[in-house]
Amino acid sequence: MQINIPFLNERTPQTVLKMINFEASQLSLPESRELMLGALGAYGVLQAIAQVFAHSLLGSVIYGLLSAGFVYGATYGLLRLVKEDAKFQQTATAIAVIGGIAALAYIILHGLFGIALPPPLPTEKLLRFLLFPILVWTAFMYAFLFRHTSMRPVPAFFAGALYVLVVEVIFSAVCR
Question: Where do the TM regions start and end (predicted)?
Answer without folding.
Answer: 60-79, 91-117, 129-147, 154-174
